[in-house]
Amino acid sequence: MDFASMTFPLTIDVSGTQYWIGDEGPYKLGMAATEFLADEDSANGSLREELENCLRVFNGVFHSFVDSFTGTQEQMNRFMQNSVLCTVGYGYHAVPGSIYLVERYTFTSLRDFLLVELGKGILYGNSPRQCRLCGRWYFHEKGDRTIYCDRVAPGETERTCREVGARAVFEKKIQDEEAWKIYKRAYKKYYARLMKGTMTQEEFKAWADEAAAERDKALRQLQREKISEVLMAEIFRELREKLNRQ
Ligand SMILES: [Zn+2]
Question: Which of 94, 96, 217, 244 has the lowest tally of Cβ within 10 angstroms?
């Protein structure tokens, strides 16, 4: 969307989650606000801040784009006081082959347009999200479970954040399984000793408590964002050693 060449008053036709700007479209609600946020060169810093505040407060409550609502009371107040100027009418929007009953909004500024576009998007479950890998904004549609964008990932030439991210999730899962395997193997070994009577109930309990704590510690270490092969091998070696000390 070319914001620089938009002329105001701007009229859009909204039907459900989609809308048209003149003959252009359909766009999905939330897309324009996402594009505005994703364009890091966009000069209008105060509008960017207002949109981010809207996301933090309004979206944070329902579909968190961050892990949890981290807004302050001041942000909440600012959001509650925001309002936009626009007119709404009703009409038909005709496209080849079909005709839509639409709400026809007319905005006098980019701010008014983007705040309504974002707010309506959030109401329908769409919203801009920040990619967990590169941190840039991307459009997130209702029901979409991704947490990564599909731009080329940092430091990559072809693979996208989504590909790199999915790979990382997969690898973490394998690593977790390895930690559990080490734990289960050791558990079997000491449980056999308990059964044979070469280990007392108390000794076994003490071992089991410590083993569970060591296992969880290893799992937490493996969860870290970036982990080298060397460190990973070290975590497994240490876990194996600690669980089989006696
Ligand atoms: Zn990304």
Answer: 96
> What distance in angstroms lies between residue 154's CA and the mean position of ligand 1's atoms?
8
| Tokens, residue 176 | 């977790």
CA 118 to ligand 1 center in whole angstroms: 21
Whether the bond into 128 is cis, omega within 30 of 0: no
Query: Looking at residue 133, what is its pLDDT?
Result: 85
Give CA–CA dist 125/116, Å, rounded. 14
Both tokens of 9, joined, read 């008053």
- In this predicted model, which residue has the larger pLDDT, 76 or 142? 142
Rounded CA-CA distance 130/167 in Å is 19
Predicted confidence (pLDDT) per residue in 143-167, tens digit: 888 889 999 998 899 999 999 888 8
| Ligand 1 center–CA 167 separation, angstroms | 14
Asked if the model's pLDDT at residue 97 lies above 90, the reply is: yes
**φ, ψ at 142 (rounded to 5°):** -50, 130
* Å from CA of 74 to ligand 1 middle: 30
Ligand 1 centroid from CA 195, angstroms: 53
Q: pTM here? A: 0.69
- Taking the centre of ligand 1 as the mean of its atom positions, its distance from the CA of residue 164, in whole angstroms, is 9
Annotated domain spans of the chain: 3-140, 161-243
